[in-house]
Amino acid sequence: MNYTILIADDEPEIRTLLRLYLENENYQIIEAENGKQALELLKKEHVDLCLLDIMMPEMDGYHVLQELRKTSNIPVMILSAKDADSEKILGLNLGADDYLAKPFNPLEAVARVNSNIRRFYALGTAELSSGMLTVRDLELDPEGCVLKKMENRLN
User: Fold this and answer.
1) Same domain, yes or no, for 63 and 131?
2) Helix, strand, coil fractions of the chain, as percent rounded to 5
């Protein structure tokens, strides 16, 4: 399966570098040069993972992340020149899954993307909605102790 990655960074050189390395791994790439554009793309395009710079014009990456987390739990990796521990902690506490300080090794960035994709999609995710726990094609009703798989009832 081809995954789509949004690279949101105001530096064209970084977007180009990441695009080259990630396309080599068969990822589909879309790009945003500012926070506002990133948020618009996240709303209208299917994105599997977001690489998000913090210091962008129009809307910074922290605000993009906060808005994204209101509706989505896709993996988000922050790429930032802000390398202080307090910045990393803030980004992770706001909902980022990973934080990579600039300058970075592009091979490490690709390895982290692969890791986040594998953890989130290949291993499955659990989602709790209206009291039901859903993982892939399984649905568990904890109150009724009923497990369903593809509409087949298992007790």
Assistant:
1) no
2) 35, 30, 35
